Structures are given as C-alpha cells and as structure tokens.
Amino acid sequence: MQAAVYAVELSGEWEIRVSLDMDVDRLWWSGTGEKREGWNTRTADKLVILSSALPLGWAVKLRESWSSTRAGRQWQVEDWRKYMTEVLKGEIAGERDAGGSWCEERLYQEVSVCTLVNAAEVTAVQHRKAYMEAEKYRLAIDAVAGGRNLDLGAAAELMVKVLEGRSLLEPEVEALLAERLPGLAGQWRAAAQLAQLQGRLRLEAAVGKTPALRSAGGGRLPALAGRFLHAAALRLPQLRLPRRGAATARRAEQRCLRCGSAATGRTACAACGLAGCAYCEACLALGRSRACALLLRSASSPAVQCTAGGSPTVAARRWGLSAAQAGAAGAALGFLAEPRQRSAASSPERFLLWAVTGAGKTEITFPLLEAVLAAGGRALVATPRRDVVLELAPRLARAFPAETLAVLYGGSADRWIPGQLTLATTHQLLRFHQSFDLVIIDELDAYPYHNDPMLAFAAEHACKPGGSFIYLSATPPEELQRLARSGKLPHARVPVRFHGHPLPVPQHLEVPPLQISLQRGALPAKLLQALRKSFAREAQIFLFVSRIAHIERLLALLRQSFSGAAMEGTSSQDPARTEKVAAFRSRSISLLVTTTILERGVTVPRSDVLILDADSSLFDEASLVQMAGRAGRSKEDPAGTVVFLSPQWTKSQRGAVAQIRTMNTIARRQGYLDKEERR
After folding, report:
1. Which positions ≥6 away from 462 have C-beta within 8 Å?
2. I want to staple 293 with a disulfide (CB 3.0 to 4.6 A). Which of 65, 206, 382, 481 is the partner?
3. How many CB atoms lie within 10 A of CB 490?
4. Among 591, 594, 647, 642, which residue's Cα sits nearest to residue 616?
C-alpha cells in the first residue's frame, strides 16, 4: 500500500509522521478539533507534506530515520527534498536496478508547505467516513457501545480495544473487524489514524530495514538486533545473512517485523507500485508480510505485579499437588512476585521449570496462572503442537471456569477472542505483540519451536515489557541446563513423578542394527526375549524405530513371531495415526511400532518402551529421555521397563541414563520418593 508522509513542527521541534488519512491529521494538528476526550488541542506551527502517496516502507523509513537533532527550523522545501533523497537513495537505486519507475524527481515532486484547514472544513469529511452506513454501524456495536451514535473518536476507542495486544496485517485487521465490529469494515482507516495520533496504535511497515526493528520497549535496536533477542539468549542458531555484494548489500538489511526473518523474496507489487517490493518467505503461511504491507500494533502497557508467592502447602491443597509439584510451584510464585524493574525498556524475566516426564507440569502451572489472572493480567500457555493444545484446552477450562479462554491453532474458530487466558500453538504468537503478562512455553525443546529463531522471536515479542517467561521442559536445551546449574537462570526441578516412584532406568541390550535383521529376515533373540517378558505381564509396548521405511518390514517379522498379538505401526505419514493411538490407549492394540512422533504427550497406562537402533544419530539424549518417559507413568504400574537396543553404547545413551539416574538421586535425597522406594 501507499501512505502519506509529512513533517510537523511543534514548538520549534520537527517530527515526521505517516498517515492513512490526511484529513484526520489536518484536523488533529489544527488544534481546533472537537473538544472531546482524546482529541488534540495543540496547534502545529507548520506542516510540510513530503508525499501524499509513498510506498509504506519508504514512508516509515523517513519517519524512523529522523533525528530530533536535525531540527530543520530553517529548512525550505528544497532542504526537505534533499533529506528524502539522502534517506531513500538505496531504495531508489534498488528500484532503478529492478527496472522500476521511481526516481528522485518523482520522489519529492509533491513536497509542499501545507495550510492547516479548520475544524469546520474537516468535520464534514470526518462525519462522512464515520457515519457511512450509520444505522448498520449502530446496530453492530450496540452491545459494546450501548447504542450510542459514535463519532470518529468513539470509533477509534473501540478499534484500540479490539486490537489490544495484537500485531496484525491489514487483511487480518479487516477479518477481525468483520467479526467484532462489522460496522467499521471498510471504514476503519480514519479511526486507526486517530488512534495512532493518540499514541495508542503503532503503524509499521511489515518488512523494513534492520534499524527500524524495535525492542520490546519500543526503542530502536542496533543493527545486530536482527539476530533476535530471544535466540541470542538461548544461543540458538541464527538465520544466515546473504553474502555482501553490490547487489545484496542493500537487501541484507530487510527483515520481517512480524517474525524477525530476513526478507529474501522480492516481487513487482501493484499495491505500492515498486518493481522490487521485499517480502518475507519464512512466515508466508500466515499471510504475505511485505515492505509495503501495513502492520498495526497496539501500544504496550507495563506488566502487572503479582502478590507475594503462596506457600507450597496452600498450592498443594488448592490444586491437589504432590509435595514436589507444590515446591516447584512455590518457587515459581516467588519468582513472579519478586520486585523488579517493570518499565517499557525491561525485557521479560525468565524461569525454568525442569520437571521429569510424567511429573504433571500442567498442574504445576495452575497456581502461576491463577496469580497473574487474579492481579488483572493476561496469561498465555504456548506449545509447539496442535494436538497438545487440544488436549490441554478442556483441562484449563475446568481449572479456570470463570475466565475467557481463547484456544488458538491453525483453523481455530477462536482466533479473534480476547481471552484473559490464551492457549495457543507457538506459530499463533506471530499475531501478538506485547500482549501477555505471563508467557508459559511448554515443551521448550520440541519441534518446531526448538532451534527455530522465528518462533523464539514471536514468543519474545508476545510478552509485555517487564513480563515473565516460564519455560517447561523435561529435557531443556544444554545451554539452559548450564545456566540453571551456574545459578544464572532461576529454576526449580521436579525430580519425581506425581505418584512418588522413581523413573525407570533404561537397560542396554547389544543387538545388530535393525537394517541387518530385516535383510536377514530374522529378529535378534534378545529383542524377542524382551518382548516376551512385556507380553507376559500384559504391558502396552512402544517399539520405537529411527526410520519410517523400517516399520512395515519389522511388523511383518513381529507378526510371524507373535501371531496372536494385536500390533500396528504408525508415523507422521500415517493418515490413521490418531485412530491407532486411540486403539493403543484402549488396549485394542498391544504393540505399536512408531517413530519419535510419539515420544511426547502420550500417556498409556502399563507401558514398556523398547528403542531399536538406540545408537542412531537421529536419537539424541533428549529424544531418548522423552521416549523412555512413556514407561512407568501410571500409579498402578510405576516401574515399567525401558530397553535400549543397539550394537553400540553411545554418548547420547549414556547421557540419557545419567540424566534419569540424577533425577532419581535428587528425588531420593529430597525425600520425594515413597518410603518403600527409599529402602
């Protein structure tokens, strides 16, 4: 899109502004606007129109590049033209290279000193826009506004309310308004412009130069800020920048404000008239983020301060927590209540909840959510996977029946619900900006969140300045483990499951690689013996393999050896995966051959776990711990069997066993294990 850009002088100081509707700006700066709350009464000394229709990205760059030290008090029209030429010389050169029609003369041909019109002249324009389809508008907002005949100021008030905490492209704004404020559909730009002048909405170009990116507090970031605040904190891999060259030097700075990725795509654009309009390919699935695309963001507010943390005893009684769970919840509550600098410039504070598989991490978060909601704040629980969102939604709804719960995932019907409590996949966080007082990231180390700087960037910016992050994981990344051990990251460990029994420690059986067994048409005797033991005790058997291609051939051999057993195989490519998992849970299937798609989030009572090719490079330490964590999760069968089968005993296997033993040792030392287990 194109937008107007102008300079305005106030008490001898100049500012540059971008406008979606210059009629609103003229009225605002005339100082004779309607004498109503929210309208400016301060008269501008001078207003210089730089362009009435400039590509939005260029207009924003003119605004962001302006420095108050360059007062321009004595500037004439020619000086403003020189400023525009200097700031946008790279863009003009890029357009020339792409065969575009923009040149210096076209850039500043409209520069002129503007005479501010008076309120009476603008009022007619304002009313025509605000009252278009007035009867339909009044009916649409009756529930929100009490049937008042709204003027532009009231329309801006409603728009700020529905956009609170949001970061939306123009099509998303229109979709939200069509659902929440249908009377404003097609007529919202004047209201948005007034809200921007009031400082309650922020108008951005979705893709821009790196210096235009802003920190959580709104201040400019240095050039290296494009390497992502959150990713740097976790030492995540950075996105590779293009090699510097004559053709790429200018483009390397273009980044998506929504997801932080480099804008690698360029195309001719009818919306702004550029021959090479940059766009982001990383978040394309959520709508095209372009250099000329309007990104509307609400202004941020400081995070709420929770009251002093409650005692573990109170948490245990209120939420039915075990002693270990209550202790971790108490530590996290104390963290939330710590006095800290909660200003517009402060980054979110972080806390790691390191809990073993099956510890009941979700229940531990309930006291934290309650504390933030009781203080009037907004809370978010984010997880990388949709199936986990669908599993957690009814549990959160039961725990907090009085709160509005928004459940967000691809295709969700709740996408515009303004919930005080939000449950979402991590991709949905790209549509939020400084919205939540508490952000809980579940399964921090899971795909696709793990090692994805885009999702880490989105999570960082979804939290309010001075807000709090809680990371949940049974297998946190090594960097976070190191920070926790060194005391640099506040954390709490939950080393035992809710039933008070130790984690099953994996045993190792040396067998040939699965591929060789499949080629020979015979399974190793040690594998068959381990399976017989599990079948004899009527366990549900997870049999993990490293490759999808092995599943069907392995099943064929297993059915020859155990003809009476019900068994199936599944993977990410299996359309019947959900049905097979349900049958496995209900014990209609006794053995399930699977890949790591079931290493998390699946609880099946009375389970045993066998991992073939446990020395595979596809199984790292965290993956092995998660797979092992499928066993022994129920109180009725807390000592399930875990077996690593491989020709080699690798570092990952040793690390997984050591991690499990360490947690058991901590649980025993802290007195969390049942008396029978401690003997």
Report:
1. 380, 382, 429, 432, 433, 434, 435, 436, 439
2. 206
3. 16
4. 647
List Cβ neighbours of 560 (8 Å cut-off, separation of 6 or more): none
The phi-psi region of residue 303 (left if phi > 0; otherwise alpha if psi is between -120 and 50; otherwise beta) is beta
> What's the Cα-to-Cα distance from 311 to each of 326, 374, 670, rounded to whole Å?
8, 16, 18
Confidence check: pLDDT of 213 > 60: no
Task: Yes or no: say if 645 and 635 are a contact pair by the CB < 8 Å rule.
Answer: no
**In this structure, are residues 292 and 277 in contact, taking their beta carbons and an 8 Å threshold?**
yes
DSSP assignment of 301-354, as one string? -PPP-PPSPPPHHHHHHHHT--HHHHHHHHHHHHHHHS----STTPPPEEEEEE
User: Looking at residue 250, what is its pLDDT?
Assistant: 43
Which of 605, 604, 619, 603 lies closest to 652, judged by CA?
619
- CB burial readout 154-175, b (16+ within 10 A) else e: bbbbbbbebbebbbbbbebbeb
**Percent over 90 (pLDDT), the chain:** 56
The larger pLDDT score, comparing residue 453 to residue 173, is at 173
* Average of per-residue pLDDT across 86-92: 89
In angstroms, rounded to a whole number, what is the distance separating the alpha carbons of residues 637 and 583?
Answer: 20
Bridge partners of 421, per DSSP, are: 379, 405
User: CB burial class (10 A; 0-12, 13-18, 19+) of residue 246?
Assistant: exposed
Residue 384 Cα to chain centre, angstroms:
9
Vertex 197, ends 191 and 200: CA angle to 5°? Answer: 80
With beta carbons less than 8 A apart as the criterion, state whether 206 and 295 touch: yes
Q: CA 634, 495, 584: angle at the middle one, nearest 5?
A: 25
Given a contact cutoff of 8 angstroms between Cβ atoms, the answer to whether 56 and 294 are in contact is: yes
250, 289, 255: which is closest to 269 by C-alpha? 289
E-strand spans in 179-319? 201-205, 207-209, 254-256, 265-267, 277-279, 294-298
Task: Tell me the backbone φ, ψ of residue 391, rounded to 5 degrees.
Answer: -75, -40
Q: Give the containing element (helix H, strand E) for 103.
A: none
Strand 607-612 and strand 642-646: the pairing is parallel
- pLDDT of 503 above 80: yes
DSSP 8-state symbol, 262: B
| Termini Cα distance of the chain | 72
Superfamily of domain 507-670: P-loop containing nucleotide triphosphate hydrolases (3.40.50.300)
Q: Residue 262: name the closest of 248, 274, 252 by CA.
A: 252
Beta-carbon-side half-sphere exposure of residue 72 (alpha carbons within 13 Å): 25
Minimum mean pLDDT range among 69-78, 251-260, 533-542: 69-78
- Interval 118-148: pLDDT, tens: 444 444 444 444 444 333 334 333 333 333 3
Which residues neighbour 646 within 8 Å (Cβ) at sequence distance 6 or greater? Answer: 508, 510, 511, 513, 612, 613, 614, 615, 616, 653
What is the H or E stretch that residue 367 is in?
helix 361-374
Instruction: Out of 3.40.50.300, 3.40.50.10750, 3.30.70.2740, 3.20.20.370, select the CATH number for domain 312-494.
Output: 3.40.50.300
> Number of helices (H) and strands (E), helices first, in the chain?
25, 24
Position of tokens 């769970």?
Answer: 325
Residue 552 φ/ψ, nearest 5 degrees: -65, -40
The model's pTM: 0.82
The residue assigned the tokens 């790209």 is 430
Q: How many alpha carbons lie under 13 Å from residue 267 in its C-beta half-sphere?
A: 11
